[in-house]
C-alpha cells in the first residue's frame, strides 16, 4: 500500500491569482472613493490624529517625549480605521446588496474575494503608517526606528488580527447602517486600554494586566519597542534594549497576537456571512 494514499491527499492552500486580487482592489478603491464617510474614516481621521501630535512636542509622557509616545501608539491604532472599520463596512455593505453572492458566482475563489479586500486595507494602512513614520522621524525629531523589521512584523501581525475581527463583526452586523456603531466598542476599548492615548502605568494594577490582552495592546508594545528601542511590555521600566533584545522582550506580545489570531480564525469561520440576514 502506498503510504501517501493511506494518509489521504495532502491539503492544498487555495489558489490566489494576482490578477484577481487586483480586480478586487480596484473595486474596493472605486467604492471607497464614492463613499465619502468611509473615505474620511480611512484617510481623514488618521490625518487628524497626526495633526494632534504637533502640540505634544516637547512635553513628557511616562518619562519620554509625549509626541513620540502617542505617535508610535497611533502607528498601531491606525489599524482600527484602515483595516478593521474599513473591512466591516465593506463586507457588510456587499453582503446586504448581494455583491458578495454575485462575486462567488464568478471565476473568483472565496480566498481571492476576501484576500483582495484585506490586501487593499493593508496597503492603505501601510501608506498611513509610512506617512506618520516620516512625520515622527522628521518634524517630531524621533529619528529612524531602532528596529524596523520588528515594527513591520508587529504591524503585519496586527493587520491579520484586525482583518479577522473585521470578518467577525461584519458577520454579526445586521446591516450597513449599523456598521458604524458595532465597531465603536472595539475602537473606544482599544483607545482607552491599549496604551495609545496614555501609558498603561496610569491604570490600576489589575487593569494593566487585563489591558495587555486587548487585541491592539501587543501591536502598540511591539511598535513602540521597535521604534524607540525600549521595553514597553513592562509598563513602568522601559529599559533600553538592543536589536536582539527587542525581539526577546516582545515575545509575550507576539504570543498574545497568536492567541487573537487563533480566536479570530475560529470566530470568522463561525460568524462570517456571504448572504444577507433573513428575518
TrEMBL record:
One of its GO terms (cellular component) is ATP-binding cassette (ABC) transporter complex. The keyword S-adenosyl-L-methionine does not apply. It is found in: Cell membrane; Membrane. Its main location: membrane. InterPro entries: ABC2_TM (IPR013525), ABC2_TM_bact-type (IPR047817), ABC_2_transport (IPR000412), Nod_factor_ABC_transporter (IPR051784). Residues 29-275 form the ABC transmembrane type-2 domain. The keyword Ion transport does not apply. GO terms for biological process: response to antibiotic. Keywords: Antibiotic resistance, Cell membrane, Membrane, Transmembrane, Transmembrane helix, Transport. The chain crosses the membrane at residues 37-54, 74-92, 113-138, 150-172, 184-207, 246-268. One of its GO terms (molecular function) is ABC-type transporter activity. It is a multi-pass membrane protein. Belongs to the ABC-2 integral membrane protein family. This is Transport permease protein. It comes from Actinomadura namibiensis.
Amino acid at each position: 500500500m502506498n503510504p501517501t494514499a493511506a494518509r489521504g491527499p495532502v491539503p492544498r492552500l487555495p489558489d490566489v491569482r494576482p490578477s484577481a486580487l487586483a480586480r478586487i482592489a480596484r473595486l474596493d478603491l472605486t467604492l471607497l472613493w464614492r463613499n465619502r464617510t468611509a473615505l474620511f474614516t480611512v484617510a481623514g481621521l488618521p490625518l487628524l490624529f497626526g495633526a494632534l501630535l504637533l502640540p505634544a512636542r516637547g512635553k513628557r509622557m511616562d518619562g519620554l517625549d509625549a509626541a513620540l509616545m502617542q505617535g508610535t501608539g497611533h502607528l498601531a491604532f491606525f489599524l482600527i480605521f484602515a483595516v478593521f472599520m474599513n473591512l466591516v463596512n465593506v463586507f457588510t455593505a456587499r453582503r446586504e446588496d448581494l455583491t458578495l453572492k454575485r462575486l462567488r458566482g464568478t471565476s473568483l475563489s472565496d480566498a481571492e474575494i476576501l484576500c483582495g479586500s484585506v490586501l487593499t486595507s493593508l496597503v492603505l494602512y501601510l501608506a498611513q503608517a509610512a506617512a506618520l513614520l516620516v512625520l515622527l522621524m522628521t518634524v517630531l525629531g524621533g529619528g529612524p526606528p531602532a528596529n524596523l523589521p520588528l515594527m513591520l512584523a508587529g504591524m503585519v501581525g496586527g493587520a491579520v488580527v484586525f482583518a479577522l475581527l473585521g470578518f467577525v463583526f461584519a458577520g454579526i452586523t445586521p446591516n450597513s447602517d449599523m456598521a458604524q456603531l458595532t465597531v465603536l466598542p472595539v475602537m473606544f476599548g482599544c483607545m482607552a486600554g491599549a496604551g495609545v492615548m496614555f501609558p498603561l502605568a496610569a491604570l490600576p494594577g489589575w487593569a494593566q494586566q487585563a489591558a495587555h490582552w486587548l487585541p491592539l495592546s501587543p501591536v502598540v508594545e511591539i511598535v513602540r519597542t521597535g521604534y524607540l528601542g525600549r521595553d514597553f511590555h513592562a509598563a513602568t521600566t522601559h529599559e533600553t534594549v538592543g536589536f536582539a533584545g527587542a525581539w526577546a522582550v516582545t515575545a509575550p506580545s507576539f504570543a498574545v497576537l497568536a492567541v487573537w489570531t487563533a480566536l479570530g480564525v475560529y470566530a470568522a469561520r463561525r460568524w462570517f456571512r456571504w448572504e444577507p440576514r433573513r428575518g
